[in-house]
């Protein structure tokens, strides 16, 4: 194919990516946007086989590797539980970053002494950022999958280790630029992998999605840099798009969670060993039976349901809808108060409740629902914890301090459905559990809800 | 391509990226992140290019690994994004044919 | 510059242009039109380039005319836009030092 | 200056232009946006003197011409009345288009036989569109300045003349591409100028701003094409930006006026000689004195003031504010109903009333105020006509048919302040003037308002 035609079709794929991001930003066009992105990616992948500079080597290897990737990726994406989606996204992002780093390394081996200074710098950038993105994403995956603690991991002197690693990364970068060998590049990759781990470890659970989004933007930039090295305009465009939109998205997410982006990023350098978290106390709480809960609900005029991560774990979205329908039928005003970061990914609760066909009008965003709590008789909190934890307002220095919360304490009665006294994702105690107007109903959210529903029917 | 052309493209693409997503509602943050994530899977193109001119087994091995990783990123990313968005679509319709797949 | 670079820049600039103004409120339609109008006065740059290599009197005459027209477009455009926008600014302040100039 | 540095600074100017358009789209940043645009233009202009390919010829001519342009442009922009601003913008746009056409012609003479096909095509495009933009803008200027009729000018067989001219333009374009001489290019320019005139003549007054915006976008594209011919990336970026944003803006404007863009553009081909417009009738109307008006206002609970072009002409914005303050002081609920195309440019009324320090909260957009007319006792229409003309709803085929209007007929009483029975910009009769609940107060808006104010004070 003539280089001009090749580039022109590549540009078309780039336009698909732009339209894809544009589509994904509006609810009505989101799905089409995603399909357009896939179309662009498909065009780009087929196109590369017609590149005029191709040497036609290793064709079987290439096709085999693609097939293997499809065989791994599609089922993983198809079968994953909704609750586990965030970590899958993190993982996909990580492998993307890893791929970019590998591409840069191979191309560097190939170019050897012929690499221009700009190319070497782009390579160093890709290797560092790609590796950080890879190992950092793995850590976020482990945190989200709860294969390791979700609380910030801070060890004494940690910030010096991190600073030293960073200095090492920069030093070795200089070495690569000066000496131009494969060995320093591999050392650089190794150090960057370590840095990625150290960078993400001290990030508190609540900030994990922000970090994923940031690493996503980073990976975009490595793709752009690879595009420069490989002289592939499409990669420059696509990578820059993702880098820029990812940066904005990270900022928007941080805003939605009331976090400072700077604080999150440099948590590594500022975090102090944890204070007063997860201190299992033995104070009295008021626990109730499903009948108690049913009675409270039955005589309410307005009920706000606050769903959280536990609802997703228990897959209780259909049961909660049944309860809400029952209450509505009794003339009770029912609304869902959706916190932007309830669950484990932004919009998690909307997705789950949409799946259960909850009418859209009943879903209220935090800003809408907060002013109505004083007129609310019962706040029914199902598997949520951090998003209603008053510590976010009252305890400076706790990991969620500054995050806007749902003001359920203003409601007449507060009911928690959870399995135990264990804290939520951020690992901090919730004072509201001990409040006089709080009733706890222990047990799996779905089982508890089922019991409440039948109790309510028998009233 | 000339350096200035590349820089111009880079700068313009930054503006496009910024503008295009700057009004997204928080409900769509995750699908958007996931979709953008899938888009950078296009590094697959780069992986194929380096695999195509790999000569030593080391080069080939690394680039085949890159292809696998990039394909997982790209294909998996679009599929998982589609699954997330599928959840939203029922809102307007009656949606009786949904709510399968993840229990 | 290569053709493909020019086309890429062109396409990306279209998207930037579209996105950047797509949310403007009707109150600002006129100032925006006027500001955009002033921006295309940058054809002055082109007029200077051709004037610089004009050899015949005809060429020089035409390009001097082009410079004059382009300068009027550019300078006048920015000044008139600023005057329009000046009217809006008083809203937040007490604005007692305004309302001169056009009666 | 090295070409790379030159281009880099040029790109910086391009970024200024992007930020300028972005700033101009938000009320709070609009002014800064305009200054940024001026900064970019300034950078670009100074920069071009350091271009490495410069031959340094004609420097005095260049500087003299710039000085002359400044001397013409700045006072024109500084001294123009607010009411005359739209036509000034049209004129500025026209001269920009003319400049682009001239640049293309000179460069073409220069290149001669050396021009590549792509360059010739870009030149032809620039000449055609630049000339259309030039002569079309002059006609809009004449219409807005009321140096010629604002009604659509349609002569029998007009559409054939236009079609023939267009065919001529295309034919001569082919001639230019084939024969590559200066003569055919000048013929092309001439035909394009004629086409521009014919294109804009049949456009009805109400659609003029849309046409200005469209010609503005066109001029942008010619600048981009010139940038291609002259290999000046900055011109490509700036021109494309204006072309794209101008196109969107044209669509937004057409939407705000409830016009179809297509209908407006191809008015030339579809317009039929005018039906039933401006037929001066001699039917009875109810005219009143300032005292009558003052009494009506005094006993109202809610008054909506509808300002129009006549308010701008009479410079009555300060007097109207005085009246509104007086009414508010009497406990009467006062609002301004602002039609998006009242006056002669979008936002015209907002600008005027802001100048008079009318509180922002009192300005209501059409969509807000229309539902309140049934609860409104008096609609006070000051120098407006088309924007309240029910013919837009009732008379298919009239020039403003389909434009959303302010529903003043729903109010208890309607008062018109105007000088005569003459129609408004669109040149069509307003039935509302003859309505039983309408009172007319003839005279210049400012004088009438002053009288009403003093009558009101004496009540
Ligand atoms: N949305 C996002 O973007 C995102 C992403 C990553 C992290 N985060 C963070 O995640 C947290 C979200 O807050 P959240 O209030 O939704 O969740 P949370 O604070 O993690 O609390 C979830 C609660 O659900 C309970 N639970 C778990 N499984 C349950 C089951 N099967 N049945 C009943 N209860 C169950 C848990 O208590 P028991 O163990 O006692 O049952 C826990 O208290 C915030 O800290 C947020 O910053 C959010
Ligand atoms: N806003 C825009 O973007 C724009 C741009 C171009 C065109 N237009 C068009 O302009 C029209 C705007 O509608 P409009 O209702 O504001 O204005 P209009 O329909 O043009 O009516 C203006 C009225 O003001 C009266 N008038 C003029 N001078 C006056 C004075 N000194 N004192 C009192 N009355 C005076 C005139 O009647 P007398 O002569 O009897 O006094 C006339 O009836 C629409 O057709 C619109 O489409 C709008």
List keywords for this structure.
heterotetramer; A: 459 residues; Rossmann fold; six-stranded parallel β-sheet; B: 103 residues; mainly alpha; disordered C terminus
Can you walk through the features of this model?
The complex is a heterotetramer, with two copies of chain A (459 residues) and two copies of chain B (103 residues). With 459 residues, chain A is an alpha/beta fold. In chain A, 59% of the residues lie in helices and 7% in strands. Chain A has three domains: 1-79; 93-269, no CATH class; 286-457, TPP-binding domain (Rossmann fold). Chain A has helices at residues 3-24, 30-48, 59-79, 85-111, 117-144, 158-179, 182-200, 208-230, 233-256, 261-265, 267-270, 290-298, 309-314, 317-329, 348-355, 366-369, 391-394, 445-458, and strands spanning 302-307, 333-338, 363-365, 378-382, 413-418, 438-442. In chain A, strands 3-2-1-4-5-6 form a six-stranded parallel β-sheet. In chain A, α17 (391-394) links the parallel β4 (378-382) and β5. In chain A, α1 packs antiparallel against α2 (30-48). The N and C termini of chain A lie far apart (75 Å). Chain B has 103 residues and is mainly α. Chain B has a domain at 32-88. Chains in contact: A-B, A-C, B-C, B-D, C-D. The B-C interface holds B 1-2, 4-6, 8-9, 12-13, 15-16, 19-20, 23 and C 1-2, 4-6, 8-9, 12-13, 15-16, 19-20, 23. Bound molecules: NADP nicotinamide-adenine-dinucleotide phosphate (2 copies). Residues 86, 205-206, 208-209, 308-310, 313-314, 341-346, 348, 383-387, 400, 417-420, 422, 424-426, 444-445 of chain A line the site of one NADP nicotinamide-adenine-dinucleotide phosphate.
Strand and helix map with partners:
The complex is a heterotetramer, with 2 copies of chain A (459 residues) and 2 copies of chain B (103 residues).
Chain A: H1 3-24, H2 30-48, H3 59-79, H4 85-111, H5 117-144, H6 158-179, H7 182-200, H8 208-230, H9 233-256, H10 261-265, H11 267-270, H12 290-298, E1 302-307, H13 309-314, H14 317-329, E2 333-338, H15 348-355, E3 363-365, H16 366-369, E4 378-382, H17 391-394, E5 413-418, E6 438-442, H18 445-458
Parallel strand pairs in A: 1-2, 1-4, 2-3, 4-5, 5-6
Chain B: H1 3-21, H2 29-39, H3 43-52, H4 57-89
Helix pairs in contact in B: 2-4, 3-4
The complex binds NADP nicotinamide-adenine-dinucleotide phosphate (2 copies).
């Amino acid at each position: 194919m003539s280089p001009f035609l090749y580039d022109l079709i590549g540009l078309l794929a780039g336009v698909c990516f732009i339209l894809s991001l544009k589509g994904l930003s509006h609810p009505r066009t989101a799905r089409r946007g995603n399909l357009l992105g896939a179309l662009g990616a498909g065009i780009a992948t087929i196109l590369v086989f017609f590149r005029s500079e191709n040497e036609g080597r290793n064709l079987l290897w290439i096709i085999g590797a693609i097939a293997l990737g499809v065989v791994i990726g599609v089922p993983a994406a198809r079968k994953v539980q909704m609750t586990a989606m965030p970590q899958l996204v993190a993982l996909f992002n990580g492998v993307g970053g890893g791929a970019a780093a590998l591409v840069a390394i191979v191309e560097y081996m190939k170019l050897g002494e012929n690499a221009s200074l700009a190319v070497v710098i782009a390579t160093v950038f890709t290797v560092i950022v790609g590796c950080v993105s890879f190992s950092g994403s793995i850590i976020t995956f482990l945190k989200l999958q709860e294969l390791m603690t979700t609380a910030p991991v801070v060890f004494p002197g940690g910030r010096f280790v991190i600073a030293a690693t960073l200095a090492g990364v920069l030093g070795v970068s200089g070495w690569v630029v000066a000496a131009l060998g494969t060995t320093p590049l591999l050392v650089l990759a190794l150090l960057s992998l370590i840095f990625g781990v150290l960078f993400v470890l001290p990030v508190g659970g609540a900030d994990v999605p922000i970090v994923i989004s940031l690493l996503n933007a980073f990976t975009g930039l490595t793709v752009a840099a690879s595009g420069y090295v490989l002289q592939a305009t499409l990669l420059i465009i696509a990578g820059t798009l993702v880098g820029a939109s990812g940066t904005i998205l990270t900022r928007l997410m941080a805003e939605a969670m009331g976090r400072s982006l700077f604080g999150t990023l440099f948590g590594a350098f500022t975090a102090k060993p944890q204070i007063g978290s997860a201190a299992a106390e033995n104070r009295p709480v008021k626990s109730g039976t499903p009948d108690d809960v049913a009675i409270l609900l039955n005589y309410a005029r307005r009920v706000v349901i606050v769903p959280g991560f536990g609802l997703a774990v228990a897959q209780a979205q259909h049961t909660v809808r049944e309860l809400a329908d029952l209450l509505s039928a009794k003339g009770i005003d029912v609304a869902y108060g959706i916190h932007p970061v309830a669950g484990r990914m932004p919009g998690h609760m909307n997705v789950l409740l949409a799946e259960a066909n909850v009418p859209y009008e009943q879903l209220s965003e935090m800003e809408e629902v907060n002013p109505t709590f004083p007129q609310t008789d019962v706040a029914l909190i199902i598997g949520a914890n951090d998003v209603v934890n008053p510590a976010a307002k009252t305890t400076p220095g706790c990991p969620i301090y500054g995050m806007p919360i749902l003001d359920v304490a203003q409601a007449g009665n507060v009911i928690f459905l959870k399995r135990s006294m264990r804290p939520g994702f951020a690992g901090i105690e919730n004072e509201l559990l001990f409040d006089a107007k709080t009733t706890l109903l222990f047990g799996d959210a779905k089982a508890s809800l089922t019991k409440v529903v039948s109790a309510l029917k028998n009233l | 391509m000339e350096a200035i052309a590349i820089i111009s493209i880079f700068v313009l693409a930054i503006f496009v990226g910024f503008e295009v997503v700057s009004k997204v509602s928080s409900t769509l943050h995750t699908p958007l992140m996931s979709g953008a994530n899938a888009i950078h899977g296009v590094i697959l193109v780069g992986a194929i290019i380096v695999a195509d001119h790999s000569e030593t087994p080391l080069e080939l091995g690394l680039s085949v690994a890159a292809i696998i990783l990039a394909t997982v990123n790209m294909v998996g990313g679009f599929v998982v994004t589609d699954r997330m968005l599928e959840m939203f679509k029922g809102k307007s319709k009656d949606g009786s044919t949904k709510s399968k797949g993840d229990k």
